Amino acid sequence: MMRFTVTWNSEAEDELVELWLNASDRNEISASVQAIDLALGSDAASKGEAVAEGLWAFNAPPLRVLFVARESDRVVNVALVRRI
Fewest CB within 10 A of the end CB: N or C in the chain? Predict the structure, then answer.
C-alpha cells in the first residue's frame, strides 16, 4: 500500500464549503470528506474509476470527487466535488 498526501484545489474547497453551508445533512458531508481523505490517502492508485487520462472519480456518498493522483510524488489533488 502506498500512502498519498491529499490536497484540495481552491475551486474544490470553495464548492465543498458551498455544499456544506447549504446542506441539511452537514454531518454526512463531513463524514464523506473524511472518508475521501482516508481512502485516497491510503492508496489512491487503487481507488476510483478512470474518467479521462490521468483523471479519476471516487464516490463517498453523498459526495463524488474528481482527482489526479501523481504516483511519482505520492500526491492526490482533488479538482472537483459534487453532491450525488
Answer: N
- Output the pTM of the full model: 0.93
**What range does the domain containing 68 cover?**
5-83
Tell the residue number behind the cell numbers 490536497, with chain if given: 7
CA distance 54 to 70: 9
Q: What is the pLDDT of residue 45?
A: 78
Order of all β-strands in the sheet with 49-52: 5-8, 75-83, 63-70, 55-60, 49-52
Task: Please tell me the predicted confidence (pLDDT) of residue 46.
Answer: 86
Question: Domain of 23: which CATH number?
Answer: 3.30.2310.20
DSSP state string for 51-77: EETTEEEEEETTEEEEEEEETTTTEEE
Number of domains in the chain: 1
